[in-house]
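Entry 12.
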Amino acid sequence: MRANQKQTEPLESSASKISRQSQMLSAQLQSIRERLYEPATAKTLKTFTSREVATLLGIAESTLRQMSLDGESAIPDRQDNGRRIYTLAQVNQIREHLAQKRPAEALEFFPRRREGEKLQVIAVANFKGGSAKTTTTLHLAHYLAIQGLRVLAIDLDPQASLSAMFGYQPEFDVDENETVYAAIRYDENRRPIREVIRKTYFDGIDLIPANLELMEYEHETPQAIAEGYGRGDAIFFRRLSSVISEVEADYDVVLIDAPPQLGYLTLGALCAATGLIITIHPAMIDVASMNQFLAMMSDLMQVIEERGGELTHDFIRYVITRHNPNDGPQVNVVTLLRSLFKDDVLAPSVVETTAIASAGLEKKSLYELSRGSVGRDTLARALESVDSVNREIFLHIKDVWGR
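Predicted 3D structure (tokens):
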């Protein structure tokens, strides 16, 4: 009898089941976030010691201490043990003060974009999962902000991983018409890009978050083209570049975390970009996938150029990620890439490390990890690797600026 009852119960549809499981998971993720970020349920950035600040600024720790005693620029807080601690905002105040005090070294202390220097828009792209695209974008954004630059991070991926790393859970914290879709959509609900830019807890970084509504752009663009949105800044591949230009004066660098597929959003990112970073995990299957990505991208870029689009980038660089230098097959792949692409492959690579994985579990970059979160040596090696990659990208930016 029980078996017959079981047979007559209606089966739950797949759509209903997946929806229910999604809601359960979302609620659990929200609960975890609230436990992590009590009581304000918001991320905060760690503070910096006098030694760390002195290293960042390239000055002696005694000079920084004397500035504090003399009341020059930002006055740090003190911990219970008497040590001085600084926020990143205070570090930037000191940068500005030193730049004014020592004009000959101003660009070293405060390397922001000067008049006549072009806004750098860097798209980070690859459609192979696991290439560390979002992690690369996050660490580069944090690195550049720590150097004193003004950064706008645009999450263009409907999966919203970058937004989550900045503390935004897309289904709870990002409402309808609050992504970059709001600024590039084709109907009367279009909004100025300034209205969807959010300040973040990380001084110097603003964010345009993502959620699933970005997929609407992929669905609506074919119809928009058919209806005549095919000229000037209205054409789909120029819309992102056009809205970025509205806030050009506010930033030094714009970083775009592109979607993991070659759709209209990605093409818009490629056209808006002045520089392109392609992430590669050095495994043969990933490299084969990237080859398909490059072939498809080349074909689509040619179509765009035939439609009047300009696709000239100041630099295109490949970044080796999740690299294990003790893995023979990986070393062979890296050697192959360097022999083929020469200097277009960044000399340093991001090593595979538990430190990055541990930081990711906490939705943090290495730059946010508090002391003692992972082993000191492990963190030091990981930071050295990531710093080397980000430093070289920053050098490319400076080169474009003519420095």
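Annotation: The radius of gyration is 23 Å. The first strand starts at residue 48 and ends at 49.
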